[in-house]
Amino acid sequence: MLISARSFDEYRAMFALSDDDLALRVLDCPGGSASFTALAGERGTDAVAVDPQYGAERAGLGDLVEREIAHKHAFMTENASKFVWSWFGDAERYTRLRTEAARTFAADLRTRPDRYVEGSLPNLPFPDRSFDLVLSSHLLFSYGAQLDEAFHLSSLIELARLARRQVRLFPLLHHTSDKRYEPLDRMRKALDGYGIPSRLDRVDYAFQPGSDEMLVLECADRGALPASREGANAHDPVRWRHLGDAGGPPEVGAQHR
Ligand SMILES: C[S@@+](CC[C@H](N)C(=O)[O-])C[C@H]1O[C@@H](n2cnc3c(N)ncnc32)[C@H](O)[C@@H]1O
């Protein structure tokens, strides 16, 4: 699987992130080499990224991703007609923005290493309701041909376990075929059974044709989730640091911290 480097601005558009959203505590899963956590952090957002690739080999990630982006440039140029260019303009700008995002990520990984936590769905190393908002791009649904339905449902439940307010997922299409992930409606029904209503919201971003929709899970009033999850009691190294003590999360419904 590719590790990719979407930019903070792409995240804002993909997930329709408002200034109010960016005042919340946010988890990016999977963070990959995206510059979201770096640039959100720069503007004061309490953002954390999690990805299996943030382990011992993390120092080499920046170079690896830059090589992948350079390698992909020829493909993007040759296959330009398969994509929507309203966001990037053309393949040159696409490659430049992704390279900038990869470099921003790599610099932040060096200067704020604890913002990048090693972990894998469907068991993430954070206690319940550790974040207000959980973002997830280009793993679930995108890799629907490789990752089975049980993995998807467990992963959605895991993301909902961590969110005090919402989970937002983008896109809803397979990355290979541009077709919507077929079991999506079934999964939404299953989540509804756990007291997690969901909706599809149109967003102002598409790169795959027809991909301008995100899935939003409303988690504030969710019920009990299936049997205790592996990560549920894990130590979260960056938990609520912004509060200045180990005081725990503010109440859901409090506007901002
Ligand atoms: C295509 S990248 C997307 C990264 C980022 N969200 C972006 O849009 O640039 C997919 C990422 O999923 C990560 N990944 C693979 N398996 C995972 C799992 N089980 N749990 C969490 N992340 C996983 C990979 O390491 C990779 O960084």
Distance between the termini: 37 Å
Q: Which secondary-structure class do the elements indicate?
A: alpha/beta
CATH superfamily assignment? Vaccinia Virus protein VP39
CATH class: Alpha Beta
Order of helices and strands: HEHEHHEEHEHEE
Neighbour order of strands in the largest sheet:
3-2-1-4-5-7-6
Residues in β-strands, percent? 15-25%
Approximate shape: globular
Number of helices: 6
User: What's the β-strand tally?
Assistant: 7
The rounded Rg comes to 18 Å
Task: Identify the CATH architecture.
Answer: 3-Layer(aba) Sandwich
Summed over residues and divided by their number, the pLDDT gives a mean of 90
What is the domain tally? 1
CATH topology: Rossmann fold
Cofactors and ligands: S-adenosylmethionine
Low-confidence parts lasting 5 or more residues at pLDDT below 50? 239-257
Please describe the structure with a list of short key phrases separated by commas or semicolons.
disordered C terminus, 6 helices, 257 residues, seven-stranded mixed sheet, globular, Rossmann fold, binds S-adenosylmethionine, alpha/beta
